[in-house]
Design brief:
The protein is α/β, with parallel strands linked by helices. It has helices at residues 7-18, 22-32, 35-38, 41-59, 94-107, 126-135, 151-160, 175-181, 187-203, 225-232, 278-281, 313-317, 320-330; strands spanning 65-68, 111-113, 139-144, 163-169, 210-216, 238-242, 282-285, 290-292, 306-307. A nine-stranded mixed beta sheet has the order 6-5-4-3-2-1-7-8-9. The longest helix is centred in the N-terminal third of the chain and has 19 residues, at 41-59. The protein is globular, with a radius of gyration of 20 Å. The two termini are 24 Å apart. It comes from Nannocystis pusilla.
């Protein structure tokens, strides 16, 4: 079989066709998660082909997707989150934030996600940060629990423009389930905030962000998921039902053998050597300026590949930390890494 007709090449071509349709992407991701598929040589060749292509793209000047953690502090103590087990606080210094936005813009990064592990609207300078991002010519998106989304703030963000997407974390439908999973937030207040924002979005004459409502499946809420989807699907652009994680073992209360275990995208030992897309595609800058390629490490924060207090974004991405990690993954030695080797999450190369 020629290289042009190899399974890896054919799968790569199929990926290009699939990417044109959101419905096809969703179906492809479900197929991708199939343990039977992941054990085939065709699948392994596809993953290695994608990793090789990603490495070539980096060498040709590709930039990663950028996350800036404007604030680590959160006003919720969600049961699936490490914030429920230990105090995590912090705010990115404004001088550092401005420099990172300037660097990213000069590097050719055109969009940034402004949240990682905290609630961004806790930050008193949140709107000022958004204004700076817009002055740099960049667009932005973020995750939020919507508890602090006032009509005034929502209107100001819509008027500012450049807001491409928001993902509201809403982990329950009924008041009892929601408030058990996301204390001390009020279910009724959050739902009212989102509904009011959706009304403002409909009335806004300019460009508006896409809205995703996401829910992490837990023993406490799994029985509500079908009704949750039925409630939100007519109201928003996308409903995301996600799998819970133990944040590389940091979350002590996680029961990975619970009722949703079958939906988790986890790997067996034979798969753990395969490359993960994160070292090529991701750059997470924490509130203190340290950099990681992996959101799964957002709790422990041990996979640190650089520090923006003393290095530029580009220096870190092309520096020894990122380069060595990419090489290790590319050469099927992921399992040897002290952190990646213990991770069983399998992000799709789609």
């Amino acid at each position: 079989m020629t290289d042009e007709a190899s399974p890896g090449t054919l799968l790569s071509r199929a990926r290009g066709l699939v990417a044109r349709s959101p419905a096809a992407v969703a179906l492809a991701k479900r197929v991708y998660r199939s343990p039977r598929l992941q054990q085939t040589q065709v699948f392994r060749r596809f993953v290695r082909t994608r990793a090789t292509q990603a490495e070539a793209a980096v060498q040709a000047g590709a930039r990663p997707q950028l996350w800036l953690e404007t604030v680590l502090t959160c006003n919720a103590r969600c049961s699936m989150c490490v914030h429920s087990e230990r105090k995590m606080v912090g705010v990115m210094a404004m001088d550092l934030f401005r420099r990172l936005v300037d660097e990213a813009s000069a590097w050719g990064v055109d969009s940034v996600c402004l949240s990682i592990y905290g609630e961004p609207m806790v930050d008193k300078r949140w709107l000022e940060r958004l204004q700076y991002v817009r002055m740099a010519g960049m667009t932005y998106n973020f995750f939020s629990n919507a508890s602090m989304l006032t009509p005034e703030l929502a209107a100001a963000m819509l008027e500012l423009g450049g807001w491409t997407e928001v993902n509201f974390s809403v982990n329950g439908l009924s008041k009892s389930v929601y408030e058990a999973v996301m204390p001390p937030l009020s279910r009724d207040r959050v739902y009212a905030n989102i509904e009011r924002f959706l009304a403002l979005r409909r009335a806004h004459e300019g460009a508006v962000p896409k809205v995703t409502v996401s829910c992490v499946t837990l023993a406490e809420n799994v029985h509500e998921v079908p009704e949750f989807v039925r409630y939100w699907r007519p109201r928003v652009d996308r409903v995301s039902i996600a799998d819970r994680t133990d944040w590389l073992g940091e979350l002590k209360k996680t029961d990975r053998a619970g009722p949703v275990r079958g939906r988790l995208r986890v790997m067996d030992d034979s798969q753990s050597q395969m490359p993960c897309p994160a070292p090529w595609h991701k750059m997470y800058v924490y509130a203190d300026g340290r950099v990681s390629p992996c959101c799964e490490d957002a709790a422990l924060r041990q996979l640190i590949l650089g520090d923006t207090n003393v290095q530029s974004l580009r220096q870190i991405y092309h520096g020894p930390g990122y380069t060595a990690l990419r090489r290790q993954h590319l050469h099927d030695r992921r399992g040897e890494h002290r952190i990646c080797g213990g991770c069983r999450v399998n992000p799709p190369w789609i």
